[in-house]
Design goal:
Two copies of one chain form a homodimer.
Chain A: H1 4-7, H2 12-20, E1 35-44, H3 48-57, H4 59-62, E2 64-67, E3 91-95, E4 98-101, E5 114-120, H5 123-131, E6 136-147, E7 157-165, H6 168-179, E8 190-191, E9 208-209, E10 221-226, H7 229-237, E11 243-246, E12 252-257
Helix pairs in contact in A: 5-6
Chain lengths: 264, 264
């Protein structure tokens, strides 16, 4: 298998070929830096309109970078040559809300009525924060008590990624910079104390923990962004007959640069 | 009927009440300045996903501010008390792509499977340009040859609004300011000569003419924004069994301030 320094230099299409051949089944955090990576949620066509509506109404948690037409596995806007059935390193397949498989390829589950929703990932603006020398650390992804606007069978609380900023200067810069990354969650949804949005233990992220669990300094400012896990969790809670997602951290690497998709 | 200076001071909910009672059937250009106004396109649920996809894929022409659930006439995000069947001053009703009625109320056409799409209007950023003392004039809305990304039965060229800027300074400021108004078409889609996007006569806008037809000065810079008429024209071309839109210029006045919906 290629190592981290190889995949950090690859073009997205070459990396996806490697994934397609089964030669990379790991997380994609260090892969093709600068390119948009996307969370995946695949749902049947008969709920696709309502799911789309749910994403639109809760944009900062469910910001979309592409949606496929029923049965079509190719995300035409962000990676026309990619195949959603084979090009993510690891998937999760749910039936009636229960996990039934965790394969590296979902061709055998694919159907003519499946619609793929690709949700931007905050790694895009994280790269921009680092490039701008903003001082911060990421504590992971948490379930919060922030309510979402329901649509059809879809409802539930928002998942958020949490970051600690060294100073108020860094926090202000982070608001400015992340705001531009509209397809990758955009501006923070909350600034303040974690317990105010239902997070009890910042050192043990329930959805996607990070390694950095050094104690929070009193001067550090906490900010929270909507997280792309949200729509998956929501689709899961709706107990759809079938729902396919990526496994946490094993994303689709698209052909679009994060900077290319900013608004301003 | 109330006059222009009355409606310029009204709150959106009061103006909509007046429309609902049939006391205002005129255009909404001078109504409730600062509030988001929206173009309307109502389509049946069986094509709503594809229409939504079309709008998403062609965002700068079809930027959405709200979408209703099937049969529900209330736009929950931007004006929960509004009723899409009665609160626009004038409608157009099409069957199989043919205009069949131009009523001031569409209650008799409403069905349980109709979905309303509300598309932001460039009047929002126009107000911001004026507030920032940007020097420009608006020449109207034109059909162009800029192709759109198709989705399902929806395809066709982009409609654009055209503005002439006094200097390159004004044009640069207009790019900066309009970019923030993501739900109201955002940044321009083209900067350059009208004939390069298929516009032959800038003094006779084919879709929505303006009064200002003074000759263009050589120093004036032309810029073009995606126009909210686009999705209506597209829905019309798809010859849907039923499609309801507002009549040009007779928009829904929402409760949201344009500045409230900016991204940055």
């Amino acid at each position: 298998m290629a190592n981290k320094s190889d995949v950090a230099k690859m073009l997205p299409k070459d990396f996806r070929q490697m994934v397609r051949k089964g030669e990379w089944t790991e997380k994609t955090a260090d892969v093709c830096p600068g390119y948009v990576q996307a969370n995946l949620a695949v749902v049947p066509k008969d709920v696709a309109f309502e799911f789309f509506l749910f994403c639109f109404r809760n944009w900062q948690a469910c910001s979309l970078v592409d949606i496929t037409e029923p049965g079509d596995p190719h995300p035409k806007l962000v990676a026309p040559e990619a195949d959603l059935r084979t090009d993510l390193p690891k998937y999760r397949v749910f039936r009636d809300g229960e996990l039934v498989d965790e394969p590296t390829d979902v061709r055998k589950y694919w159907r003519d009525d499946l619609v793929g929703f690709l949700i931007g990932c905050s790694w895009g603006f994280e790269g921009a924060l680092r490039a701008a020398n903003v001082q911060f650390r990421t504590l992971g992804d948490f379930t919060t008590n922030i309510p979402l606007v329901p649509a059809g069978p879809f409802q539930g609380p928002m998942a958020c990624s949490m970051r600690l900023f060294k100073s108020s200067y860094d926090a202000v810069r982070a608001v400015q910079i992340s705001s531009r990354y509209v397809p990758e969650h955009g501006a923070p949804v909350f600034m303040g104390e974690p317990e105010d949005i239902g997070i009890k233990d910042i050192y043990h992220a329930d959805l996607y923990p990070h390694d950095d669990v050094h104690p929070r300094q009193p001067s550090e400012i906490a900010m929270f962004w909507g997280c792309g896990i949200t729509p998956q969790l929501t689709a899961l809670n709706a107990k759809l007959p079938i729902m396919i997602s990526h496994k946490g951290g094993h994303m689709l690497v698209t052909d679009k640069l994060a900077a290319e998709m900013t608004v301003l």
